[in-house]
Amino acid sequence: MIKVSVLYPKKPGTHFDMNYYVTQHMPLAMRLLGKGLRKTEVDAGLHGTSPDEPPAFYGGCQFYFDTVDAFVAVWGPAAAELVADIPKYTDVTPMIQFNEVKLSV
Hints:
Order of helices and strands: EHEEHE
Radius of gyration: 14 Å
Strand content: 25-35%
Shape: globular
Helix content: 25-40%
C-alpha cells in the first residue's frame, strides 16, 4: 500500500482555511479520487516540539492507494479541478510525498 501525503507549510504571511479544506476541498478530492482510494486522513497542525512552538505545517492530508499506478490513474482526470480549488483555501504551495506503508496497526 502507498500513502500520498500532501502537506501545507506554515510560513509567515500565508493563510490556510481549514474549515474550507475539510468541508469543501476534501469531499471534492475524495469524490474525484474515489476509485481505488482506500482511506483518507486530514491533519491540522497543533504545535511544534513544545507547546509554545508553532507547527511547521498548517496540516494536510493522506490518501491511501494500493499502488502508485492506482493513484496516477485517478489523479490525471482530477488534477485540474483539484489544483484550481487550492486558491479557495490557501496561498501556500503544498509539499507532496509518496510513501510506501511498511507498518500500519
